[in-house]
Amino acid sequence: MAQGLDDDFTLETSELEHIRHVREYQSKNLKRALTYSAMGHLSVIVMILLIALAKRNAPQSERTVVVPYRELQAPPSLQETPPTVSVAAPAAPPTAGIPLPTEDEEVKEEQTIATQEELSQSIGAGETGSGDSLVIAPPSDALPAYGEYVYVEELPEAITKVPPEYPDIARQSNMEGTVVIQALVGKDGRVKDTKVVKSVPVLDDAALAAVKRWVFKPALSNNKPVAVWVAVPVKFTLN
Length: 239
Known about the structure:
Among the domains are: about 1-55; about 155-235, 2-Layer Sandwich (TolA/TonB C-terminal domain), CATH 3.30.2420. Helices cover about 30% and strands about 15% of the residues. The protein has helices at about 1-55, 115-120, 170, 205-210; strands at about 155-160, 175-185, 190-200, 215, 220, 225, 230-235. The strands form three sheets. Strands 3-2-7 form a three-stranded antiparallel β-sheet, with helices on one face. Strands 1-4 form a two-stranded antiparallel ribbon. A two-stranded antiparallel sheet has the order 5-6. The longest helix has about 55 residues, at about 1-55. The N and C termini lie far apart (about 150 Å).
């Protein structure tokens, strides 16, 4: 009976020894496999780095174009002389012609031109003659248009200023302001026409009515009265 137990114990001891050897063998193989695997990966990484470095340092190849021989042109000759350019001789300048007078251009006799005094003595004022007589029209009394320039030596001067009537609506609204009017002053000093150039809508009509009643000393040009446009400011104040 004791001998049977020893046999069982011996069998178990050998199995344990076998298992221990198997584990040691597996551990060695696993270490070896990990080592080979790490070395393989490291080798691949090193190869990739070497290839990239080689590509970076390698000289870039230039692109070459191959032209067939039949398409090449012959080189220029070294003995070829440059072409000569012929320059035409300048043409002779045209001779100046001498104009010859025609019958219509010939002057038959000398003529004299009358002076202003002779014309005024030979032609009466307001008379018209026949033939080649000259008619002198009397000076025009037309008034200048708005904006037309008139030369004056003295501007018009207001003699009689009629104050404007303050509109009720402007007085109730406490409205004040200045209306600028262009007035056409005639030769007699009276206002012939008016235009508003700076407007205050509520006060324009009152300003126009007042300026039309003003009387001026007319403008002078060559010591003679002339009609001219003049700016007239009309101020409206409540005080």
